[in-house]
Amino acid sequence: MAKISKNRKAALEKADLTKEYSLADAASVVKDITFTKFDASVDIDVRLGVDPRKADQMVRGIVTLPHGTGKEVKVLALVTPDKEQEAKDAGADFVGLDDYIQKIEKGWTDVDVIITMPAVMAKVGRLGRILGPRNLMPNPKSGTVTQDVAKAVKEVKAGKIDFKVDKFGIIHTSVGKVSFSAEQLAANAAEVIQTLNRLKPSSAKGTYIKSITLSSTMSPAVIVDKNATI
């Protein structure tokens, strides 16, 4: 029989991990069963009834969390000189073009989001083999390739996140930190779920949202009742 860790044993004493909770209660339970000494991230995992191998069932979108992510997001703006001050004023951490492209080609990727303009995508495009595997490649669908650079930077800094279904049909994204209130975590998670419902592919048959769980960085998963999520 596998040995149960001290933290998991403590979690089992505080909550029934086989039970389905409302979103608000699940958020509260996650806070109760997280014992890390750091401010752990809280994540939502939603299993969808889609086949990601089919192009018309690839669920991808953006959502602005009402209470932000709780994470300091480092933004790189790859823009032309006339847009540099605009990007800086909006809060971009790094601003430039050719110099940063050269840094990235040498292996530098110490950013969370890259925002750029349609006019320079020809230059940025050659970074795909480096940025693609790290999910950093700018994409018009996620709002990171735009002429309105300032707006894009401000939205990302305010809690806008990009998500897409993985090869197993699961959406995995952060909805805040353990230091958030249960109400804030529930509101952020609800926004993700509502966005996923709006993105339901017309070709997806049967049950669309199959399961939802909340967990922190090192906590067990708490099952959310998908019929009582809001």
Automatic annotation (TrEMBL):
Lineage: Bacteria, Pseudomonadati, Bacteroidota, Cytophagia, Cytophagales
Gene name as annotated: rplA
Matches recorded under CDD domains: Ribosomal_L1
Protein name: Large ribosomal subunit protein uL1
HAMAP family: Ribosomal_uL1_B
InterPro entries in UniProt: Ribosom_uL1_bac-type, Ribosomal_uL1, Ribosomal_uL1-like, Ribosomal_uL1/biogenesis, Ribosomal_uL1_3-a/b-sand, Ribosomal_uL1_CS
Physiological role: Binds directly to 23S rRNA. The L1 stalk is quite mobile in the ribosome, and is involved in E site tRNA release.
Complex formation: Part of the 50S ribosomal subunit.
GO CC terms: ribosome
PANTHER family registered for this protein in UniProt: 54S RIBOSOMAL PROTEIN L1, MITOCHONDRIAL, LARGE RIBOSOMAL SUBUNIT PROTEIN UL1M
Record's keyword terms, sorted: Repressor, Ribonucleoprotein, Ribosomal protein, RNA-binding, rRNA-binding, Translation regulation, tRNA-binding
Family note: Belongs to the universal ribosomal protein uL1 family.
